[in-house]
């Protein structure tokens, strides 16, 4: 886990703390590692590795989103040490949703250093059909307004591009605005769900102390041009969009 990569993320986020070999990495920094580079011939139209050639099956649904995640922190990960991640597909199923068929894929990742299990992560992906030009858009949920702590968070195409590069996330909705609008039907570039989760974990750690677990779920997309509010009340966290919509909810489990 090269500390230079962690320091690059700190720079992208405008944060001053730097890491050296042996330093403890904060929660979710493992997202910067364990890349799966594929040649162009093995990529899907969205820039991700094509489904059906690894642990994720091809269910015939082209649009991908990271819907939810859950983490258990067993031991601290340290910068500069050799690490390994083992990934397993626990479940894949197609269900009928309000907007059409939905493919659900659940992955489990186990991350170890020196043979010791440090993090278990469950990742829930959703695959959907292309957007309908006739169906009315689904109304997003309304976010809570009873927060004890809140701060503004802003994004731009540069930050989204740098986060995509640091996590080797080729999904074009985060950097190709023409694709995001014309193919996937978004209003602009989409802020990464893991980036929002990363910021919520930072807030939870500062306010509540070291984490033993964390879970989050995306409920509405946030665009690169929008200013949102990161909120916390007790162990609950959420992201409120500029129109009051709920973009993500989370729950922290302190040690």
* Content-based structural category: alpha+beta
Strand order of the largest sheet: 2-3-4-1-6-9-8-7-5
**Which ranges are low-confidence, i.e. pLDDT below 50, for 5 or more consecutive residues?**
none
* Helix content bin: 10-25%
- How is the biggest beta sheet arranged? 9 strands, antiparallel
Chain-wise SSE layout:
Elements lengths: L2 H10 L50 E11 L9 E15 L2 E14 L2 E13 L20 E5 L3 H10 L10 H6 L10 H16 L2 E8 L9 E6 L2 E5 L5 E9 L1
Antiparallel strand pairs: 1-4, 1-6, 2-3, 3-4, 5-7, 6-9, 7-8, 8-9
Helix pairs in contact: 1-2
Question: What's this, in brief?
Answer:
By secondary structure, the chain is of the alpha+beta class. Helices cover 16% and strands 34% of the residues. The radius of gyration is 18 Å and the shape is globular.
Could you please describe the fold and organization of this structure?
This protein has 4 helices and 9 strands. With 255 residues, the protein is an alpha+beta fold. The model has no long low-confidence stretch (mean pLDDT 95). Helix content is 16%, strand content 34%. Strands 2-3-4-1-6-9-8-7-5 form a 9-stranded antiparallel β-sheet, with helices on one face.
Main traits of this protein?
255 residues, alpha+beta, nine-stranded antiparallel beta sheet, globular
């Amino acid at each position: 886990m090269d500390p230079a990569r962690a320091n690059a993320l700190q720079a992208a986020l405008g944060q001053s703390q730097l890491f050296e070999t042996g330093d403890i990495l904060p929660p979710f920094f493992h997202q910067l590692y364990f890349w799966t580079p594929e040649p162009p011939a093995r990529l899907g139209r969205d820039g991700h590795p094509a489904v059906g050639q690894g642990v994720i099956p091809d269910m015939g649904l082209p649009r991908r989103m990271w819907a939810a995640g859950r983490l258990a922190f067993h031991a601290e990960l340290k910068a500069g040490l050799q690490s390994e991640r083992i990934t397993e597909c626990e479940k894949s199923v197609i269900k009928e949703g309000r907007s059409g068929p939905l493919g659900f894929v659940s992955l489990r990742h186990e991350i170890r250093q020196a043979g010791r299990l440090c993090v278990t992560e469950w990742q829930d992906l959703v695959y959907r059909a292309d957007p309908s030009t006739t169906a009315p858009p689904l109304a997003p949920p309304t976010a809570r307004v009873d927060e004890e702590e809140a701060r503004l968070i802003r994004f731009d195409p540069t930050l989204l591009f740098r986060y995509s590069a640091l996590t080797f996330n080729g999904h074009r909705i985060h950097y190709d605005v023409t694709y995001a609008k014309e193919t996937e039907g978004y209003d602009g570039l989409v802020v990464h769900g893991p980036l929002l989760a990363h910021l919520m974990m930072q807030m939870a750690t500062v306010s509540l102390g070291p984490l033993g677990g964390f879970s989050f779920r995306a409920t509405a997309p946030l665009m690169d041009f929008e200013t949102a509010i990161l909120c916390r009340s007790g162990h609950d966290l959420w992201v409120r969009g500029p129109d009051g919509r709920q973009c993500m909810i989370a729950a922290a489990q302190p040690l």
